Automatic annotation (TrEMBL):
Residues 248-458 form the Histidine kinase domain. Residues 215-242 form a coiled coil. Pfam families: HATPase_c, HisKA. It comes from the Bacteria. This is histidine kinase.
Length: 466
């Protein structure tokens, strides 16, 4: 119980209520002491009035009056004259004098603490105003023993009463908090446990129902979180299913392309000039398709294979990409431009680099084709002391806001209708395998530019140089 939130709340409530009662107890004891002394002054005044009514009072009766008043002597000041009305032997000297005519709260508390602190029985003088204006001043001497005993009894009784009140209050607060706060919190915890058993079941998502605003805000936040997680898990499942389907298709497609590759070998012996010119490109395209199928199968088993690095002439890779895309242009008015230094060689996996540039150029071509207007795609490159920089630019319509926000998110970063956005995701992963990155350098109504940065220093892990 003490480890639970409700148990600790019960204990803390009792402690704080008792602390509050203790803070109230000290002024209460001080007020009790004041009332006790005032009652002794009143008794002494009544005894003195009896003596004033009959000057020939017997000594035994005088002592009885003093005992009833619990004082040693009484001094009454009337008409500016100070008169000792009643007296008896005082057992010792007067140690303190207390004036109750106009005391402050601080003085009463301090004097009460002093009285409790001194266990010995002492003689004190108490001064006050007579009741009903029966004189100017009344003064008595009295012992502190009975006063201290009465204060202790009063304090103990008040403490136990406060303790009972504190426990009763703590129990009521505990029951109230348990009903209105802890029970709804346990309900939220139960919802979380039920949801954790099958997070893909949307029926297990919590429906906010709390009437307390803060608790309802927590339920709404949990509802949103569970909804996002369920959607993410469903998307992950779809991706897994898609990956399995792609792996099967790639397996069969690889076999088909391998057969086609055997037939294209015959094209190399043809005497037709056009066939001789196009045969190498067809063979290269089929070879890349076979490699892509094999890489897809590998990706379905684990991750994209680590790049096999070698010195690559970038102009050859870009030339192959542009030649392939020129054939895909068809009737559209799209031109291609290259600004690649002939001597520029960089360290990369040639097949993966081809796939990256091909994806960017193909996306640019499709974006321009969708507008129906003429356009241009340009590929340029440069190098710095630390990086090789490759830019793929187009004069298309630019990326829409949704595509920019989810640029490298599968199935969400597609810029054209029906696009999946996988091309950029795959390209970004391939470049990360080289230790580099792809950035959207600019986009707008006048076109889009992507920047590929490849580091010259090998800082990644698992890069196998060939």
């Amino acid at each position: 119980m003490f480890r639970s939130l409700s148990g600790r709340f019960l204990i803390l409530t009792a402690i704080f209520v008792i602390l509050a009662e203790v803070l109230i107890l000290v002024p209460s004891i001080a007020r009790f002491r004041e009332d006790y002394l005032l009652s002794r002054l009143e008794r002494a005044q009544i005894a003195s009035l009896a003596l004033l009514a009959d000057d020939m009072i017997a000594p035994d009766l005088e002592q009885e009056l003093l005992r009833n008043a619990e004082v040693y002597n009484v001094v009454l000041r009337r008409d500016e004259a100070r008169q000792l009305v009643l007296s008896s032997p005082v057992p010792g000297p007067v140690t303190d004098t207390y004036d109750l005519r106009d005391p402050t709260a601080a003085e009463l508390i301090r004097e009460a603490i002093v009285t409790l602190w001194r266990p010995e029985n002492q003689v004190i003088r108490v001064i006050g105003n007579p009741v009903r204006e029966a004189g100017l001043l009344i003064e008595v001497t009295m012992p502190t023993g009975p006063l201290r005993t009465a204060m202790l009894e009063y304090g103990i009784n008040m403490f136990f009463l406060s303790a009972v009140f504190s426990i009763f209050t703590a129990v009521l607060l505990f029951l109230a908090v348990r009903s209105f706060i802890l029970r709804p919190i346990k309900g939220v915890i139960t919802h979380m446990q039920v949801y954790a058993e099958d997070p893909e079941d949307s029926r297990r998502i919590i429906e906010p129902s709390a009437s307390v605003r803060d608790l309802r805000d927590a339920e709404v936040a949990l509802h949103d979180l569970q909804t996002q997680l369920t959607n993410a898990l469903r998307q992950k499942e779809r991706l897994a299913q898609l990956g399995s389907a792609v792996a099967k298709i790639s397996h069969d497609l690889r076999n088909i392309l391998t057969s086609a590759q055997l037939f294209t070998d015959r094209l190399e012996i043809s005497e037709d000039p056009a066939v001789k010119r196009l045969a190498p490109k067809v063979i290269n395209s089929i070879t890349r398709a076979v490699n892509l199928c094999e890489a897809t199968l590998a990706f379905g088993r684990a991750e994209e294979p680590a790049p096999r690095l070698s010195q690559v002439a970038l102009i050859d890779v870009v030339g192959d990409v542009i030649d392939s895309e020129r054939l895909a242009v068809g009737e559209h008015d799209i031109s291609f431009a290259e600004d690649i230094p002939a001597t520029l060689r960089l360290r990369a996996d040639p097949e993966q680099l081809y796939r990256v540039i091909f994806n960017l150029v193909r996306n640019a071509r499709q974006a321009i084709e969708n507008t129906g207007a003429p356009g241009e795609i340009a590929v340029s490159a440069e190098e710095t002391d630390s990086h090789w920089l490759i830019r793929v630019s187009d004069t298309g319509p630019g990326l829409p806001p949704k595509a920019r926000e989810n640029l490298f998110t599968p199935f969400q970063g597609g810029a054209r209708k029906g696009g999946t956005g996988l091309g950029l995701v795959i390209s970004a992963e391939l470049i990360r395998g080289h230790g580099g990155q792809i950035e959207l350098e600019s986009t707008g109504p006048t076109g889009t530019t992507f920047l590929i940065l490849l580091p010259k220093e090998i800082t990644g892990v698992g890069l196998a140089a060939r």
